[in-house]
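Q: I have 162 residues here and want to know how they pack in 3D. Can you give me a structure?
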Amino acid sequence: ALDTMEALELDFNHFFRRLCSVQVKDLENEEGRKWVAGRFFHAEGVTGLGNNEEEAKARIAKWLDRWRRRIQEDWGSDEEGDVKREEEMKKVNPKFIPRSWVLDELIQRVEHGGEREVIGQVMEMALNPFQDEWKTGDRKQEERWCGDVPRGNRQMMCSCSS
């Protein structure tokens, strides 16, 4: 899975968080697996050199089939198993990660815009990263911070200087 995710430039965190809500019944046939595969791509679709959507979906679908068999062994094939597995997976796959681009935005908003309340919003999310939603008062912002990394920030490299 990791080689596929790297080749398709998928976000590792988003992949596993989105995998939490996949239901086994949706993976029973190739068509279903390809349909599910589409949820792992960035908003603009398939990225990476030489990748096209159909091949990318087929590659993920192949992995999803192996994963489905493993899930059925461990959790069964029924809805109750899906619910329990999703709960357990969400405990170890955070929805929010304080990524560099979010922190850069936070710094800009506080230093240049005087928006100090945004610090509390990010802290609430950072201290409770496994929740599905928070009470920051700005649901749209929560979803944006948990969503796709802006394309220009995906390969962002940070360094500390003194």
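Q: Anything worth noting?
A: Residues 53-75 form the longest helix (23 residues). The chain has eight helices and no strands.
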